[in-house]
Amino acid sequence: MSHHPDSKKPAIIFLGAPGSGKGTQGKVMGSIPRFFHCACGDVFRSLDTRTALGQQFVHYSSRGELVPDELTIELWKAQIDNLADTHNYKPDIDILILDGIPRNVEQARILERHLDVLQVFHLSCPNRNELARRMRKRALKDNRIDDASDKVIDQRIATYEAETKPILAFYPQDRITDIDATQPPVKVLSEIIQKVLTLPEYQALASKSA
Predict the structure, then answer these.
(1) What value does the mean pLDDT take over residues 105-118?
(2) Cis peptide leading into 102, omega within 30 of 0?
(3) 152 burial type by CB count under 10 A (0-12 exposed, 13-18 middle, 19+ buried)
(4) What are 69-90's pLDDT values in tens digits?
(5) 200 cis-preceded (ω within 30 degrees of 0)
(6) Separation of alpha carbons 82 and 102, rounded Å
(7) 65: burial class by Cβ within 10 Å (0-12, 13-18, 19+)?
C-alpha cells in the first residue's frame, strides 16, 4: 500500500520542560514496532546543507538567528518524507512520536497541515529544582559543562514556560494527558502506554498490522 505524502500522519507529541524526560520516553516508545520516534534535534544535525532548504537553514544559524517557524517545519517535513521514502518510517502503519517539535504555538498550527495529533502527553514537573537537578546531571554526563550552569538552566526553563508550554492551550483538552514526570521513568512509560492502548486510532492501526 503506497502512502500519499500529503495525507495527515497519525502522531503523538511529548511535551515537557527540559529535564522532564520526554526524550527518554520518545526513544523508548520509538523502539517499539508501530511507533516511529522523530527526535527533532537530529533533524538539524543530519541536515544536508547542499540542498536549498539546507542553505536557508545555514543562512540563519550561521548568524546565530532563530530559524523561522515555517522553515523549521519544512525541514522537519523533508526529513520525515525522506524517512518514509527509505522505508524506515511507514506512515500507513506507524504512529509518529515527536518530542522537541512543535516548539511554539505557531509551529503547532503549521504542523496541523501534516499531522493528525492523537494525543499530547504533558510530562509535568512543577518542581523546578528537580528539573534543574536532572538537567545538570545530564549535562555533566554528556560532558556539556556549560549547560550545567544555573544561568543556562534557568534560561531554558523560562523559554519553555514562555514559548512551548502555551501549546497545551492550542490542542483540545481531551487530547491532552498530564503525567507526573517526577515518577520513576518506567512508571511514566507505563502510564503513557496504558493511555495509548485506549486510543481508537491505535486500535485501528494495530488490527491493520496484526
Answers:
(1) 97
(2) yes
(3) middle
(4) 999 899 899 889 989 999 999 9
(5) no
(6) 19
(7) exposed
Cell of 191: 502510564
DSSP string, 135-161: HHHHHHHTT-GGGGSHHHHHHHHHHII
Close Cβ partners of 65 (under 8 Å, ≥ 6 residues apart): none
First to last CA, the chain: 15
Convert the pLDDT of each residue in 140-181 to its tens digit: 998 888 888 999 999 999 999 999 999 999 999 999 999 999
For 118, other C-beta atoms within 10 Å of its C-beta total 18
Hunting for cell 485501528 — which residue is that? 204
* Side chain identity at residue 136, one-letter code: R
Euclidean distance between CA atoms 186 and 25, whole angstroms = 9
Domains of the chain: 9-202 (3.40.50.300)
Contacts of 181 by beta carbon, 8 Å cutoff, 6+ apart: 16, 20, 21, 123, 124, 125, 188
Q: Are 84 and 5 in contact (CB under 8 A)?
A: yes
Cell numbers of 133, please?
537537578
Phi, psi of 148 (to 5 degrees): -90, -5
User: What cell was used for 194?
Assistant: 496504558
